[in-house]
Amino acid sequence: MCNQPHISKSFASLHPDAFDAVIVAGGDFPTHHVPLAVMERARMLVACDSAGEELVRRGYKPTAIVGDCDSMSAEFRAAHADIIYKVEEQDYNDLTKATRFCTERGCSRIAYVGATGKREDHTLGNISLLDFYRRELHVDALMLTDYGVFIPAAGETAIRTFAGQQISIFNLSCTQIDGDGLRWQPYAFSALWQGTLNEALGESVTLRGDGNYIVYAAYKL
């Protein structure tokens, strides 16, 4: 097994104050109380490009708006010039530009909201970027949707859960995966669909892998 540090995460109850920064992307705006609470308590609320307009329209006050600014109206840019940080390079998308903005200011625990929905290719790309942020930018990241939470992981990961919680495991580079506390024993799945729709048996799940993987845990109904 790979010698990664132990990570302990709680998907059963996400505390709104657990993050240094919250990044809002331009996908579906959240409606579930968990991502909304995280946004409302954000120490630093950073919008990706046009998501800044949506935040302001809904009464939020973003700390910063980061992106290439190609999706914002000229009127909005002029009115919010003091919090807009234009990054024109095209090697990375706006989510990554916003993430770099946060890490350059000392943020390492980052929650992502509004990063799924609308364009399916953007959704898949944003979810896969979580692994890049963990490995390359050393971000302790969670992506919150209206249905559950994505977390990038490696090595051993302990998760506080509840009985019956739906858990999916997406293998990225592991040749070995096992775990405790799941209804069905995980393994090094060769296709993304194979690790979906597992179930926590009780108050904790532990996963062990020799590479990288992403875990999804559904909220409690």
Walk me through the structure.
This protein is an alpha/beta fold. The protein has 5 helices and 12 strands. It has helices at 33-40, 51-57, 74-79, 94-103, 120-136, and strands at residues 7-10, 21-24, 45-48, 64-67, 84-86, 109-113, 140-144, 148-160, 166-171, 177-180, 198-199, 204-218. Strands 1, 2, 3, 4, 5, 6, 7, 8, 9, 10, 11 and 12 form a 12-stranded mixed beta sheet that branches. The longest helix is centred in the middle third of the chain and has 17 residues, at 120-136. The radius of gyration is 18 Å and the shape is elongated. It starts with 6 loop residues before the first strand and ends with a strand.
Helix content: 10-25%
What is the beta-strand fraction?
Answer: 25-35%
Distance between the termini: 35 Å
* Chain oligomer state: single chain
The number of helical segments is 5
List descriptors.
about 220 residues, alpha/beta, twelve-stranded mixed sheet, 5 helices, 12 strands, elongated, disordered N terminus
Write the layout of secondary structure elements.
Layout: E1 7-10, E2 21-24, H1 33-40, E3 45-48, H2 51-57, E4 64-67, H3 74-79, E5 84-86, H4 94-103, E6 109-113, H5 120-136, E7 140-144, E8 148-160, E9 166-171, E10 177-180, E11 198-199, E12 204-218
Parallel strand pairs: 1-8, 2-3, 2-6, 3-4, 4-5, 6-7
Antiparallel strand pairs: 7-8, 8-12, 9-11, 9-12, 10-12
